[in-house]
Structures are given as C-alpha cells and as structure tokens.
Amino acid sequence: MKKKILIIRMSSIGDIVLASPVLRCVKKQLPDAEVHFLTKQSFKIVTAANPYVDKFFYYDDNMAELLRVLKLEKYDYVIDLHNNIRSNKIKRSLKTTTYTINKLTLQKFLLTQLNIDVMPNRHITQRSIDTVLPLGVHDDGGGLDYFIDPKDEVSDDDLPTGHLAGYMVIVIGATYFTKRFPQHKIIEVCQQIDHPIILLGGKEDAESGATIAATDPIKIYNACGKFNISESADIIKKAKLVVSNDTGMQYIACALKRPVIALWGGTTPDLDVEPYYGSNFMSHQTKPFYENIVLNLSCQPCSKYGLKKCPKEHFNCMEKIEVSKLVQKIKERL
Predict the structure, then answer these.
(1) Quick one: signal sequence residues (predicted)?
(2) Which residue in 182, 254, 262, 332 is deepest, having the highest Cβ count within 10 Å?
C-alpha cells in the first residue's frame, strides 16, 4: 500500500524554493509514496508546475475546511518545514507521525540580537532535508527546483529588441527595507555597466524601477510589476547574470543555475541562507559561480527576516557597499 506524505511549507517564495529538494528527494527515493504539499494560496504559482507533487492543498484563511479535507486523506506522515502556529495546529489535528524542522529560533536570536554566533553552519536547505532522514531520504545533491509552466514562458515580443542578444538582471525588490540595495546605488551601478539590464521586482517596486530606468531607458528595462513570479523566473532563466538582494528571486536564480551576486544588508549568509546550487552542480564548477557581497559589520545581521528600517538609523550595511567594487565584479562575470 502506498504511503501518504503531507509536506507543509506555507511561505514565502524564497523559503518554498529553498525547501524544494525535499519534495524531489521524497518522491524519487520513496517511489511508492504519494506526496502532497500544503502552502498558502498566494504562493500557488511557486510550486504549481512541480512534477514531484501528486496533490496540492492551499491555505487561504480556511483552516476549518482545510482540516476537514486533510483528515480524509489519512496521512502516514506529516513533514512540517514551517513549524509555526498554523502548521502545529494541522499536525495536532491529523494525529499521525510527524517530523518537524528545527527553526533554530534561539540561535538566530543570539546572532541577530547579541551578535553571538552559535549557528550550526548547515544550510537551511540541508536542514530541511535532514527532517526526512527518519524516512530514509537523503540529500541527492541536486540543489533547488523551480519549474516554469509553458504558459509562463516570456516571448521575445515581451522584451525590448536590444535585450534579446543577452542581458543581466538586477532584482531591486525585497519585502523589507533592510534587505533592499538603495535606489541611488542601483542607479550608480547601472550607469557604469555597458550592458543591457532588466530590473525585476513586484508591483510595489514599479515606481522605483521607473526612476532607475529613466536614467537610460535604452539600456535599462523596468520589468517590475509587469510579470508574474514564474514569468520573472523565465526572464532570470535566460539572464547572463543575476544581481539580487536577499529575496525569493535570488533562490529562483539558484534553482535555474544562473550565476548570482548576492547583496546582503540586514540579513546575511551567517543565517545559513546563502545562494545554494547543490553539490552535484558545484562540483563541476572550475571557478566561483556565485558571490556574496556582505560587509560583515558588527550590527549584521540585525534580523532573521529583515526590518522596516535600520535599527541603527545609518543603514551602513548597504550604504557602504562600494559601487566601484560591485561594478568590477559584475564586469568580470559578464
């Protein structure tokens, strides 16, 4: 009889992508298992095309109905990769064997609030896979996954003609202020790069993108808010290089095996969340494939998620990143 396994990861884009190897490894290493996945309705597009999931469920402020439906499935195992109030309520209701990720709440508090680093130096993706070790599932080295539905592939007609021979992407968006590279510094970078550039971000970034693109509307294309997540992923898939804040698009770039220059402010790789490609891919690289730009100030990281404003009110972690050095790294990659 097939085993039924429910895997839970409610949000966000980046966290869902970082957890994606669990779906693949469980399905491929337990071929008789039926894999179900639960996430928020608002993040449906992130996994909708994933071939390793047999059935999807979506939370949309519908807990009572969701629990009723999930109980009918009679799961053998629940894998909780979120570990929050909602996921714990679901586990209690389903009354079956559960395995839950350790969020390292204490370690992250010590790092972000007291600058005491007792993090295990084990990437969040690897720790996610550790959660299913009791099922005999291990890391296959394949890295992250992001699958693009053919309907979300961006045609040449949707991009400027001058960008069709090749472009780089700068991801300007991020949920929180302390994770965003300042607009004036992005403008400086763009002015010093003689290469087609596409700006990516959400609708909330459209105005900032327009301001940046106005400095050179031929070279810079503002795609912020014009494409959905998977369409933006397809733009990334075809990019020569992706420069990104700590945001979901950075990890989508990793899943699509694009070279990344990651810009770190209020969050840092010390939280075990740096760009991740998997051991199989990285073992074939003869030179560094990605790079972290992080100043490692005494006040970094100040938060595990990001903040609405700099707690020190100077934002030196981003403001003091030298544009000339960043531009040089971009030119070397291009």
Answers:
(1) none
(2) 254
